[in-house]
Amino acid sequence: MKIDRQFLINVNPLNSLFGRIFLGFWATVLILIGITILFTYQFNKLNKVQNPDKNNLTVLETLHSEFERMKKSNLVWQIKQLQRTTKAYKIILKDLNTGEFIHDRKLPEGLDLNDLNLLMLEPSPLKIRVNNYLIVGPKLVIRNNQAYQLVFVTKLSPRAGFFYALAQVPVWLQISICLFLTSISCWFIARTITRPILKLRKSTQIFALGNLSHRLEVDQYRNDELGYLANDFNIMAEKLESLIELHKRLLANVSHELRTPLTRLELSLAIALKKPTDCSLQLQRIEVELHKLDNMLSNVLKLARLESDAMSLDRSEFNLSNLILDICYSASIEAQDKSIKIQQQIETEIICYADVILINSAIENILRNAIKYTPPHSKIDVELSQSNEFFKVTILDSGNGLNEEELERIFLPFYRTETSRATGSDGTGLGLAIAQKAIQKHQGFITATNQQGSGLKVMITLPKSENTLAE
């Protein structure tokens, strides 16, 4: 039967992150367990016979003293008494003349007389482990001119007994237990690591299918790298969604704004074709509409470049004070048509290091917007100042201001206020959006607020740290 190659790839654990983490942990744990077992086995072989510790010697000395002190007592009776009052589980005496072992009952199961005989031959006390018991001795006891060798037996602790019983389990069963226990722990570790990655993969697939509002659920208590990755994914998704929505809205607005001048062009062209001998007025209208189209498309392209992260600033040193004075002078011609006075309060000799074209465009757009919505026979205040950290350009008109909803939206592309739509203004709603993007490119910001008793106040704030020659 031919096995599908893709099936082999899928079942191979090394082809998945989970499988590699799991097998890596498991192999590491098994190697450590194997080394530990090897060394433990070797040490156990060496340590089966040991020197007695201080407590063992104390018990042995106590028993020796008691046997020599009570020389007339019956040995078996005395053994029973001492077993009740000391830590000795069993006390065993060997008569050196007859070789007979003396104890209260039969020896504990598992104790071999051969082991006791070998221990009795030692010149100094030792401690040996036999099954679940420790035997300590020998110690020479003299009673009534009769020599005995004394040893005592203690039980191993339950924990030591457990490990001893475990050691008696067949090797294949020991290996199976190790494999089972380590596989559970390694599976849990690998699962903990890969589960959020699988959730992230699923979220990216949902996002790729077009569900831009989908977000990855983030455990608020997870503060490791995977938690940071999940947060970064949500931030990325948020930005992508906003950018795509912005471009959709931009496309829709461009289509809408193009329709009106194209309709006028089509109408003017139709009239001119009907009266080819008297079409100068229609040709003038066509020229005006073409200029509007050219201006709008130019602003759209400018906004698109400003929104692009790839755009770099063409910084240079220039006199910001003089730049604003020039902008005010150019705008004053348009302002004079409405008898609007531009009052200037410009701090002199302010040197800025920025993209002069973008800064000029931003300030000019805001000032011309103020002229457009300021009623005739009024004034506009233009102010330039600086602090230790910022340059500030303030433009205050004498209009009616805006409501709260309009204040939040006036910097959106193609947004036009109710006033501009009602008065039939020929603006496209791109001027303030371009101004905002230009200032943001310099790490600055624009704010618009209603000034009580005056009108709309627009403030441009540019950080000096982003505009110094040191940069």
Automatic annotation (TrEMBL):
InterPro entries: HAMP_dom (IPR003660), HATPase_C_sf (IPR036890), HATPase_dom (IPR003594), His_kinase_dom (IPR005467), HisK_dim/P_dom (IPR003661), HisK_dim/P_sf (IPR036097), HssS/ArlS-like (IPR050398), Sig_transdc_His_kin-like_C (IPR004358). This is histidine kinase. Its EC number is 2.7.13.3. It comes from the Bacteria. Keywords: ATP-binding, Cell membrane, Kinase, Membrane, Nucleotide-binding, Phosphoprotein, Transferase, Transmembrane, Transmembrane helix, Two-component regulatory system. It is found in: Cell membrane. GO terms for cellular component: plasma membrane. GO terms for molecular function: ATP binding; phosphorelay sensor kinase activity. The chain crosses the membrane at residues 21-43, 171-190. Pfam families: HAMP, HATPase_c, HisKA. Residues 253-466 form the Histidine kinase domain. It is a multi-pass membrane protein. Residues 191-245 form the HAMP domain. It catalyses: ATP + protein L-histidine = ADP + protein N-phospho-L-histidine.
